[in-house]
Amino acid sequence: MNCVPFSETPAKNYCTYCQDVINGLRIKCMECTDFDICLQCFTAGAEIGPHKNDHDYKFVVRT
């Protein structure tokens, strides 16, 4: 059996809008598939593609 080393580094999340790495708090759209946005873009009301700023969302905190 071949073993693949486990990375100690947690996966990074990127803002779908600005593409920056999201550290700490991120906003996850509950209506769009695989859509995470940083707090700065969220507060600016960013919209991209089918995502609209009035969609339902949840706050996600990396622990």
Automatic annotation (TrEMBL):
Location of the ZZ-type domain: 10-63
Keyword vocabulary terms for this entry: Metal-binding, Nucleus, Transcription, Transcription regulation, Zinc, Zinc-finger
Stored SMART domains = ZnF_ZZ
Q: Give the residues annotated as coiled coil.
A: none
Q: Give the location in the cell.
A: Nucleus
Which PROSITE patterns does the entry link to?
ZF_ZZ_1, ZF_ZZ_2
Assign the protein's first listed, main location to one coarse class.
nucleus
Q: GO terms for CC?
A: nucleus; SAGA-type complex
Q: Which GO terms describe its biological process?
A: chromatin remodeling; regulation of transcription by RNA polymerase II
Question: CDD domains under this entry?
Answer: ZZ_ADA2
InterPro entries named in the record: ADA2-like_ZZ, Znf_ZZ, Znf_ZZ_sf
- MF term (GO), any: zinc ion binding
According to UniProt, the name of this protein is: Transcriptional adapter 2B-like isoform X1
